[in-house]
Amino acid sequence: MSDGQSRPTSGSGQIVVSGLTKQYRNLRAVDNLSFTIAPGRVTGFLGPNGAGKTTTLRMLLNLVTPTAGTATFGGRRYADLQQPLQHVGAVLEASSAHKGRTGINHLRVICAAAGLPRQRADEALAMVGLTPAANRKFKGYSLGMKQRLGIAAAMLGDPQVLVLDEPANGLDPEGIRWMRGFLRALAAEGRTVLVSSHLLSEMQLLADDVVIIAAGKLVRQGPVDTVIGSMAHSSRVRVRTPQADALANALAAQSATVTRDADGVLLIDGVDAPAVGRAALAAQVELHELTTERLDLEGVFLELTSGKAGIR
Ligand SMILES: Nc1ncnc2c1ncn2[C@@H]1O[C@H](COP(=O)(O)OP(=O)(O)OP(=O)(O)O)[C@@H](O)[C@H]1O
């Protein structure tokens, strides 16, 4: 986003997590987790409360020491990166800064400490739309402005990889929309974008790939469409008819599974909508509604993680 150029999608932006484990006293917060995150894509990191997302991200960034396993960026552990800010940008919680410091000065202090040119502070602030608030003190920033400042700080080193924990927290709908465009543009430049979130409908719009964990373990990984399509009931047919018994009998002959909801609507698995329409025509059944319902990411998430309650 700094120069509008495409970045090389070489292995340098690949994140590889292998056998990552974190054992707290009585709790295995992260349990033998392995997955790969590709450059040039936005990956959603999803899991119920307490699943181990933050612990995993903190291990990636060398803020928590793993009990076992490794996490690498382009083959190197975070601790071994020569200039980490120029390789990996991270926002783990709404930015904290000296309360009396202005937004621009907060970024300049980080630039000075990391040996980055001072003008990067202005560029990063502009990137997140905070230029009008550059000279306002941090204590007067809203939660959404603090989130943007955190992202600006993460962008100072023009990193190949972005890691964000719940970046939409505190953002209003316009802010969430901005964030989506911002992260998608970074991925389009060839960067690696890893984002944890609870907002599944937002993730469906934002993410190319997902990694879903529950109780510290990997549940599913892959492109969003593939993960949704992998579910046994990724779509089903919904029918409203005054002759439900006749249609159910006709469909039984086609090895469809028919259930009825409380309103008498038939929910049909195992055959598609045209097949249901043909069966209805052949049996002279009158239809008032015939639609295909597709599982969305939220439905998939709930199905995959049900019974694996996050709070442990
Ligand atoms: N320092 C710690 N000591 C002991 N237990 C911890 C520590 N840090 C995290 N845990 C526990 O590890 C588990 C995973 O926590 P983590 O914060 O990684 O989950 P999460 O998926 O990020 O959850 P949320 O979505 O609620 O933020 C939780 O049960 C948590 O209580």
UniProtKB/TrEMBL annotation:
PROSITE patterns the record matches: ABC_TRANSPORTER_1, ABC_TRANSPORTER_2
InterPro entries for this protein: AAA+_ATPase, ABC_transporter-like_ATP-bd, ABC_transporter-like_CS, P-loop_NTPase
ABC transporter domain mapped to chain residues: 15-240
Keywords, alphabetical: ATP-binding, Nucleotide-binding, Transport
Superkingdom field: Bacteria
Phylogenetic lineage: Bacteria, Bacillati, Actinomycetota, Actinomycetes, Micromonosporales
UniProt-recorded name of the protein: ABC-2 type transport system ATP-binding protein
Family of this protein: Belongs to the ABC transporter superfamily.
Entry GO MF terms: ATP binding; ATP hydrolysis activity
